[in-house]
Please model this.
Amino acid sequence: MEEFKIIKLPEKTEEEEVEVEEKPLREIDENYEPPKKRWIFLILLIIIVAISLMVIKIFTTYSDFQVEKTYERNESAESTYCDYKGNLLKYSPDGVSCTTYDGSLIWNYTYDMVNPNMDVCQDYIVVYDKKGSEVDLFSSKGFVKSITTTTPVLEAKVASQGTVALLLQENSVSYIQLYGKDGTLLASGEIHPENKGFPVSMALSSDATRLLLSIVNVNSGELSSELVFYDFTKEGKEEQDNIVASYTYLGSIIPNVDYVKNDKAIAFSDSKIILFNNNLRATVAKEISVNGEMKSIFYNDTHFGYISETAKEDGEVVNKLNVYNLYGFRWMSKEIDGSYESVQIMDNNEIFIRNENEITIYNLQGIAKFNYKFDEVVYNIIPGSTSKRYYLIEENKTEQICIK
Model:
């Protein structure tokens, strides 16, 4: 067996060592910052992408849909449906109920009303029999209190803490009553036609400290409407009958008033829309003249609008959709095709127009986002979890759909 031989490797010369000497690594500067131009480019790129996505979303239209889930229901055609805290609220002459969208019952309550109407403020709901005597208060947990009156109820409003305001009317005398959520009478007053006129609409602020009445009066054959603001705070109690402001409009009827976001009052007359500031004297913020004959109104906590019937230069009569924000800035004015039965603005600020089983959804830019004629009558459509998903409320079922 051959022995291993030890071989001595040649040593490197100084010159060779210098040649192969490793170059030192460049020190990392912890304070190094990319050039400013690079940051500007990235910011501009993000802005361009965001604007592009927004434009695509605004101008994309859909004409079909896919049913994702179907929930069967067995209810009367007289029912009215709306979204309530992410659940489905339904009321009819027989009762009111709150269910999840898949049909699971949260609570229900039965009554016997001829003409049920409803008002909602945050957690509380009031259902009343118009021109009847029953008023029922509910919360997200169900029934709270029932109020029975001896005078027919014209209108009922509820505040965020459960305070209920009633406008009652019998013969020629009108009454205003405020109740706590336990049914305790908090305040009351009378309105006689020879002094004021006939109240036709009422609004209650979300904290129940302010109340607005629209009163119609006819003196010497001249029609007028008066808006009367009541304040129940310390400052308002220093005024006679708690009246802090009143405005008279000759030749107009104001059949609808309400408080919207931040308790700003809004009034809809047959010829104009009036916005008020949220201050003690409820000063006028803006008046918007209605172009044409007003046919329908709609509003939520951020926008309002109306559909009017107007004549074009060639004499053709058309329906025009107008939408504004709460500062009175007009978002859009658009001519809509054909007739319609109802219009509403949804919580996502899209406008839903229904004509029996045909529906159209417009965005705030006036683009018809979705139009479709269904096989069955559609009672309501409610926005879902994404911009393309909706809950379709039909007579015997609720469908979760995705438009495409």
